[in-house]
Amino acid sequence: MNKTVMINGVLTSLEEAKISVMDHGMLYGNGIFEGIRIYNSKIFKLKEHIDRLYTSAELLGFEIDISKEQFIEDVIKTAKSANYKDAYIRITVSVQSYIDLSTPEYSINRVIILLDDDIIPEEKYAKGMSLVKIDRRRMPTVAIPMRAKTLNYLNSILALKDAHAKGGDDCVMLNTDNFVAETSASNIFYIKGNTLVTPHPDAGILVGITRNAVLDIGVMLGMETKEELFGIEDLLNADEVFLTGTAYEIMPIRQVYDQQFSIPGTKTSLIRKMFQEYIIEHAITF
Ligand SMILES: Cc1ncc(COP(=O)(O)O)c(C=O)c1O
Questions:
Q1: Tens place of pLDDT for every residue, the chain, 286 residues?
Q2: Is the distance from CB of 90 to CB of 153 less than 8 angstroms?
Q3: Cβ of 175 below 6 Å from ligand 1
Q4: What element of type H or E holds 54?
Q5: Which 3 state secondary structure label does DSSP give 219?
Q6: Complete domains list, the chain, with CATH
Q7: How far apart are CA 253 and CA 242, in angstroms?
Q8: Residues 197, 215: Cα–Cα separation, whole Å
């Protein structure tokens, strides 16, 4: 059987992959992660994901014990070993120390897992998703830097539970200042006329790799692109709404609160189509 996991530089199988129970990721959520796609044996935006991983570590105040170049080599080695044509790469980096919260001395656990890709069926895109209103807010950056992709996803997990309890597919997560931030685990866009708008990073979002790609695509399509702070009314008055993320790519939204949108929206469809071409151009062979 192919070895599909690498732990601290050593290839192993999913069944045998183990890390210490004293890992601070497990004890306290003290760690970071990335999710990356392999499309047709090519890794999409690997450098950008690794850059974000190192930024997340910096925001959490710890240092990854190998260089970015070595990390990229490890991901490629694991991808070659797993040998999946289409796959999801999950990287987790956590701090290992002792039971104390403070970690004057620590080691790092680097885990790279390759999973056979579970591609979202086309019917889901055709149906689109609904976003409901919830009371829970996006955790403010003054508490935890939301630009970091940390192992503490409780805010998102609870928000998604709230959304499902209300019969929605997901929710709009407003920040504590009432600006639209994102959904439980994806970035949000709206289109009004020829303008493509997404929340500014100051709204307290994870700055998605797919989000940034879609902003590039908007420019290529001759749209005006804006990153700004906006409220729920702007979303409700939009022509089209969609989500972006590594798993979803570009997901049309058919309903926000009580407001319905006819899908597929013309511009969303065009952006989706362009994104497929963009993937081919921005993925590297391993
Ligand atoms: C909270 C949150 N926002 C946005 C995204 C989308 O980011 P990306 O496009 O890099 O996958 C994710 C992805 O997991 C996420 O967890």
A1: 789 999 999 999 999 999 999 999 999 999 999 999 999 999 999 999 999 999 999 999 999 999 999 999 999 999 999 999 999 999 999 999 999 999 999 999 999 999 998 789 999 999 999 999 999 999 999 999 999 999 999 999 999 999 999 999 999 999 999 999 999 999 999 999 999 999 999 999 999 999 999 999 999 999 999 999 999 999 999 999 999 999 999 999 999 999 999 998 999 999 999 999 999 999 998 8
A2: no
A3: no
A4: helix 46-60
A5: helix
A6: 5-116 (3.30.470.10), 122-285 (3.20.10.10)
A7: 5
A8: 9
Q: Given its phi and psi angles, is residue 205 left (phi above 0), alpha (psi -120 to 50 degrees) or beta?
A: beta
- End-to-end CA, the chain: 20
Which sign does the torsion angle of CA 37, 247, 50, 4 carry? negative
By the 8 A CB rule, do 31 and 67 touch?
A: no
- The residue contributing the CA closest to ligand 1 atom 14 is 185
Alpha carbon of 184 to ligand 1 centroid (Å): 9
At 60, give phi and psi (nearest 5°).
Answer: -95, 0
For helices 68-82 and 46-60, the axis angle rounded to 10 degrees is 130
Q: Is 264 in the pocket of ligand 1 (CB under 6 A)?
A: no
Distance of CA 105 to the CA centre of its chain: 30
Q: How far is the CA of 100 from the centre of ligand 1 (A)?
A: 30
* Atom number of ligand 1 nearest to Cα 213: 9
Both tokens assigned to 1: 């059987």
